[in-house]
Design brief:
It holds the Pfam family ECH_1. The chain has about 280 residues and is an alpha/beta fold. Helices cover about 45% and strands about 15% of the residues. The protein has helices at about 5, 35-50, 85-105, 105-110, 125-130, 160-165, 170-180, 185-190, 200-215, 220-235, 240-255, 260-270, and strands spanning about 10-15, 20-25, 55-60, 65-70, 115-120, 120-125, 135-140, 145, 185, 195-200.
C-alpha cells in the first residue's frame, strides 16, 4: 500500500524497508493534537493494522526539535457541550473522552509491534501516546512531562492507566503526575519507561527504531503477533489466567506453517520466508 494512500493531513506514512511502516507526526509548529489530529492518528493506525504486509511500525516526529507539545490548548474549547443539564452534559463529555482514548489506543490494538522514537520535548498527551506503544526509545536530548495538572486536568487518555504497570514504580509516577515537572531521558530509563537512550537527537533515535523494526520484520508474523497479544493479556490478568489464555491461543497458532519454515531455515542457515498474516488484496 503506497504511503501516500495512508498518510493524512497531519501524519505521514512511509515504508522504508520490507514489512516496516514509519509513521511520523507532522503538524507544524509543535505537533499539538486537536480532535482532527487524534482522529487521524487512530484512523491511520487502524488502517495499518489491516495491511497484511506490515510486521512492525516505527512512530516518530518529523519535526526537528520535538516529538509533541501535547494537547492543542485551543481544543479545550471543544469540550463545551450543547447540554445545559449537568448529567447529559457529562454523558457528552464522556463519549468524547472515550473516543479520544480509543484513537490514541490504536497503537496498542495494532497487531504489529509499535516502536516509538522520541526526541526533544514530550509533553502531556505525548506520554499517553508513548504509553500505548510496545517499545520506547529516546534520544539523549529528550525531556518528558506529565503536564495535565498544570492545565487543570487529570491525565485521562492512558498515562495514569498504563505507566504504573510499565514502570512498576508507583512513587515515581505519582511524583511526576502530581508535580508535572520535567524529567530527563536518563530518568525515563531509570524508571523503566524507555528501554534505550540513543546518543543524539531525531536522526539517531529514528535510525535505531527503524533498525529494531527491521529485525522484528524478519521474524514470523504469527509468532510476533501472538507474543504481543499474550503480553497485553498478561499485563491485565493473573499468571494462571494468562497461561490458560496462552494455551488456547497457541493451540490454534502452533498449527502455522511458520514453525516449519523457521526450523527449516535455521537448519539450512538461510533467511526464512514467511507468508503475510492475511491474503493481500489484488491491486485494482
Amino acid at each position: 500500500m503506497p504511503g501516500s494512500a495512508v498518510s493524512g493531513q497531519f501524519i505521514n506514512v512511509s515504508y522504508p524497508s520490507p514489512h516496516v511502516a514509519h509513521v511520523e507526526l507532522s503538524r507544524k509548529p509543535v505537533n499539538s493534537f486537536n480532535d482532527a489530529v487524534w482522529t487521524e492518528f487512530g484512523h491511520i493506525f487502524d488502517t495499518i493494522s489491516q495491511d497484511p504486509d506490515i510486521r512492525a511500525v516505527a512512530l516518530s516526529s518529523s519535526l526537528p526539535k520535538l516529538f509533541t507539545a501535547g494537547l492543542d490548548l485551543k481544543a479545550l474549547g471543544s469540550l463545551e457541550t450543547s447540554e445545559r443539564e449537568p448529567a447529559r452534559s457529562a454523558l457528552q463529555l464522556r463519549d468524547h473522552i472515550i473516543a479520544f482514548q480509543s484513537g490514541i489506543a490504536a497503537t496498542e490494538r495494532c497487531p504489529y509491534p509499535v516502536i516509538a522514537a522520541v526526541h526533544g520535548s514530550v509533553i502531556g498527551l505525548g506520554i499517553d501516546i508513548l504509553s500505548a506503544c510496545d517499545i520506547r526509545f529516546t534520544a539523549s536530548d529528550a525531556t518528558f512531562s506529565i503536564k495535565e495538572v498544570d492545565v487543570g486536568l487529570a491525565a485521562d487518555i492512558g498515562t495514569l492507566a498504563r505507566i504504573p504497570k510499565i514502570t512498576g514504580n508507583e512513587s515515581f509516577v505519582r511524583e511526576l503526575a502530581f508535580t508535572a515537572r520535567s524529567f530527563s531521558a536518563q530518568e525515563a530509563l531509570s524508571m523503566g519507561f524507555v528501554s534505550k537512550i540513543v546518543s543524539g537527537s531525531r536522526a539517531e533515535v529514528v535510525s535505531a527504531a527503524l533498525e529494531t523494526a527491521q529485525v522484528i520484520a524478519t521474524k514470523s508474523p504469527i509468532a510476533v503477533m501472538g507474543t504481543k497479544q499474550i503480553l497485553l493479556h498478561a499485563r491485565d490478568h493473573s499468571v494462571e489466567d494468562n497461561l490458560k489464555y496462552t494455551a488456547i491461543w497457541n493451540a490454534a497458532m502452533l498449527q502455522t506453517a511458520d514453525v516449519k519454515e523457521a526450523m527449516s531455515s535455521f537448519l539450512k542457515k538461510k533467511p526464512p520466508k514467511f507468508l503475510p498474516l492475511r491474503k493481500i488484496a489484488p491491486k485494482l
